[in-house]
Amino acid sequence: MKYKTMKVKAKKGYVYTSTKLTKRGVHLTKYKNKVMTTKKAYLIKVPGKPAVWYDRVSSKNKKLNGYVYNNYLKVIKKSSTNGKTSTKTTNKIPVDPDANVPLKDLYSYGTNSKNNSTQKLGLDGDQSYYDTDIFSKYPANLDEFKSTFVELLNQERQSRGLSPVSVDSDLSQIANKRALDSQKINDLVHLDSAGNSIAAVYAKKAGLNVPPFSECLGFVENAPTRMVVRESLRDYIYQDAASDWGHRNILLNPSYTRIGVGITTAKNKMTVNAIEMY
After folding, report:
1. Distance from C-alpha of 54 to C-alpha of 47, rounded to nearest angstrom
2. Which neighbouring-strand residues pair with 40?
3. Quick one: which of 234, 224, 229 has its CA closest to 94?
4. Which of 37, 77, 127, 273 is deepest in the core (most CB within 10 A)?
């Protein structure tokens, strides 16, 4: 991944001499105030560990020259106030390297899955779509999640020749309550102890005049909004074999025209969403 040249510092970690990460160079605890530059990052995977980003760094005297774990780096930004220059250190906001990879081809963060048998079977493998250590630091905007979910779902539906769905205020009320239900019990449950649909009970109590509707519930690791939405849709539509494709069949039901989306942050800091459709 290439980007504009930035100045960075690091308080810990090693500078590795190659992308194989087999040979360590200097330890950065000795160079806490040393300024380095970076303009390129590599997604590197070593056996037994998930793929993570390493930046290619270089110091002015070239003594610090190699690859450093992205999470250890702080970007140095200069701002001017009343003619004086101050230096601020902030985290880099990561960019989704898979933003243009179709969901059907996505297996894990930084890779596609066209040749992966697990993905083809619709089963989620051991790897997460994104590196949670990095992206959980930039949690989704919950209101933005709702509109983005509808936007990307409609893109998926229209690519299959299906009509788009529009937001229904009554379904949205139910979806918000159902997301909070899942948060409170830290579980995904559709039916009450009597075997009745909890969402349908809410509709009846509120006197909402809506036809029979279907529900999807899901937990997703937190991350920037669009990534969380893409992960949710990927799970529901392309990784749903374990649920006999029930979620996929709801979201891609050609007769459905209305949708309500609920979202909140779960106790384990994941996001939990509720989708109601008819």
Report:
1. 16
2. 2
3. 224
4. 273
Report the run of H or E that residue 158 belongs to, with start and end: helix 142-159
Averaged pLDDT, 150-160: 97
Mean pLDDT score, 262-271: 89
Select from 56, 59, 76, 65 the least CA-distant residue to 6.
76
Instruction: State the pTM of this model.
Output: 0.64
Q: Which residues of 215-253 are buried (b: 16+ CB within 10 A; e: fewer)?
A: bbbbbbbbbbbbbbbbbbbbbbbbbbeeeeeebbebbbe
Q: Which of 66, 61, 132 is nearest to 94 (CA)?
A: 132
Q: Which residue has the tokens 């995977």?
A: 45
pLDDT of residue 30: 81
Between the alpha carbon of residue 226 and those of residues 41, 130, 259, the distances in Å are 21, 12, 19
Give pLDDT tens digits for 60-99.
887 789 999 988 888 876 544 444 444 444 455 567 777 8
Sign for the CA dihedral angle at 232, 237, 239, 240 comes to positive
The 8-class DSSP code of residue 94 comes to P
Closest among 210, 230, 212, 211 to 220, alpha carbons compared: 230
What is d(CA 140, CA 83) in angstroms, rounded to the nearest whole number?
37
